[in-house]
Structure formats: structure tokens, C-alpha cells
Amino acid sequence: MSNRISQLFNIQYPIVSGGMVWCSGSRLASAVSNAGGLGLLGAGSMHYSVLAEHIAKCKAATDKPFGVNVPLLYPEIDKIMHLIVESGVKIVFTSAGNPATWTSFLKEHGITVVHVVSNTKFACKAAEAGVDAIVAEGFEAGGHNGREETTTMALIPHVRKVVDIPLIAAGGIASGQAMLAALALGAEGVQIGSLFAATEESSAHQAFKERIVQAKEGDTMLMMKKTVPVRLLKGAFFELIKEAEARGADANELKEILGKGRAKQGIFDGDMDAGELEIGQVSAVIDAIRPVAEVMTQLIQEFETARESIVHGFR
Predict the structure, then answer these.
(1) What is the pTM of this model?
(2) Cα–Cα distances in angstroms (integers) from residue 47 to residues 214, 218, 224, 258, in the given order
(3) Which of 35, 30, 41 is nearest to 13 (CA)?
(4) How distant, in Å, are the alpha carbons of 107, 168, 191, 239, 315 from that of 179?
(5) What is the pLDDT of residue 144?
(6) What's the pLDDT score for residue 15?
(7) Domain segments of the chain: what residues?
(8) pLDDT for residue 315
(9) pLDDT along the chain (315 residues), means of 10
(10) In this structure, what are the phi and psi dihedrals at residue 167, rounded to the nearest 5 degrees?
(11) Quick one: pLDDT at residue 59?
């Protein structure tokens, strides 16, 4: 399945796993890469020494390309970027910040740079900063999200109109059919989060994976728009935030309720009551915890079947 994305990363399939906090460790990243996609380590939940360990483990577990997702608001960003260079990582996805800050530095060291955006304004800024590709992430996605609430189906053609560099679709993609739809709209690859968060190789707690599988339609919602919008699974912490927002809590109070370590508490430690449970809308169609290799095989089979059915349907 050759196109600009698969060629850019030297991978078999234009499928990228999300660099998700507390989910995307070396087991998940290497498994996705070994199955023909591009696995990403999620540096957002890793301190310097932990990321160094996961990079080393990923190198030992795969001889295929892999990358690191780095939120640009990371408190140790300078140390992390130098670690990435010194470790020989060749692909970096950046998010949550200004791509102009680090893109030149990374590219000077021979690193392919991709930036995640949620609207056309930041897509243009990323292209101007010199990134090699863009991830356009729709409002369906889990975790931190755009304020505009633009869905993936609307966002991809918008972004495609304003930039001509390789484009990856993210948000609401958990099947080969959804992958085909994204490519039909102008994307050249997909980034998948929730589906991989629920795999056997994900570093998330088993209790969180089971909650993903149990999720039904309408069980997630975008919350905390006064601070940093985030899509959450409904539960005790969700209700705490919902009640605070309903009575008009300001950003400071919401930050106080959020505190520190809520995502780790839920996703990694398995506290389904007090933890912040970040996941996408598409969790409602995930019905099993499976190995990455099986997930990848099904994605490609579904993609090929859907493409053939459309071709034959129009004859």
C-alpha cells in the first residue's frame, strides 16, 4: 500500500498508532511497527529516564521504523529533544504547542517531523514551520482535543485544501472502512488511538481496557473547555467535572479538581472512579481486547474488502 505516507516513514501500511499517554510504551509501539505500521512512543507520560528506557526497548524489539510523540508543552522538552537526537530516533510527532520551536532543530539532525493539528490555521502554521507531514485530528478523538469541535470527516477536506504536504487523518478511526473514508477525503494515512489502547500490548491497565470494550454509544464527552478540552469516558470523575461545569466553575477551580496524575490514576493504575479516563468516541465499536497483529490484519482486510465493494458497486 504505497503512497507518500508509507514512503515517508518506510512502512508497509500508512497506519500510525497514537502516541497516547500511559498506553503507548515500547510493547505497543514495536508491535505496531512489526505488523507493518508506524508505532509511536508516548513521551507525554514519560520522564527522561523512562523515555530513554522505552526507546532502547523499542530498538531491541523491532528493526522497523518507529517514532516518538512529544507534546511541546512538556516540562523537560529540551532534555527530551536532545535525548531523541542522541538515541538516533528518526521520526518525531509533535503536538500541543508551536511547531516552529523545534522543527528546524529536529530536521537539522535528520529527523522526520510530523505535527498534530485540529484546524486549518494551525495546519498552515505547521506547513510554514517546515514539518514533513500533518496529522489532522477531529473532535471524535480521545484525550486532548480542539476547541472547534470539527469532526474528522469535515476537517480532512478543509486541511487538504490549504496544505499540499502529506496528510494523516486521526479521530474516530477504528476500522478499514473508516480508513478508506479518510483516504477518500484526501488523507494519505491514518493515526489510530483508541483501538490500539485496548490491545494486549498497550501499557494501559486491564481495568481501563475492559472499560473501553464495555463503552456504548454516547459514553464519552468533550469536557473542560475552560482549561484544555479533553474527551472522557463517563464515570465518577466525569460526573465531578460535569457538576462543577454546570454550576459555572472557572478554569482555576477545574484545574484544582483535576489536580495532578489523574490520567495515570485511571489509565495506568486502573482506578475507574477517581481516574481521568481519556478515550475516543469510537470506543463504542471496540468489542474485544486483541493482539496488535490481529488488529492490523483485520484493518487491512476490511480496507481491501470495502474498497472492492465500492468499486464493484459502481459498475
Answers:
(1) 0.95
(2) 31, 34, 25, 20
(3) 35
(4) 29, 10, 9, 33, 22
(5) 81
(6) 98
(7) 4-203+284-308, 216-281
(8) 56
(9) 94 97 96 98 93 97 98 89 97 93 96 97 96 96 85 96 97 97 97 98 98 96 86 92 88 84 93 94 97 98 94 69
(10) -125, 130
(11) 97
User: Which H or E run contains 102?
Assistant: none
b or e along 110-138 (b: 16 or more beta carbons within 10 Å of the residue's beta carbon)?
Answer: ebbbbbbbbbbebbebbbebebbbbbbbb
11 Cβ contact list (under 8 Å, min separation 6)? 33, 36, 37, 38, 64, 65
The DSSP output letter for 116 is E
Burial degree of 256 (CB within 10 A; 0-12, 13-18, 19+): exposed
- Rounded to an integer, what distance in angstroms lies between the CA atom of residue 297 and that of residue 179? 13
CB–CB of 231/276 below 8 Å?
no
Give the helix/strand (H/E) hosting 291: none
Distance between CA atoms of residues 146 and 190, nearest Å: 18
Q: What is the pLDDT of residue 283?
A: 97
β-strand 91-95 against 66-71: which pairing, if any? parallel
| 284 contacts 216 by C-beta, under 8 angstroms | yes
Instruction: Say if residues 80 and 43 touch (Cβ distance below 8 Å).
Output: yes
For the domain covering 4-203+284-308, report its CATH number. 3.20.20.70
At 314 the pLDDT is: 63
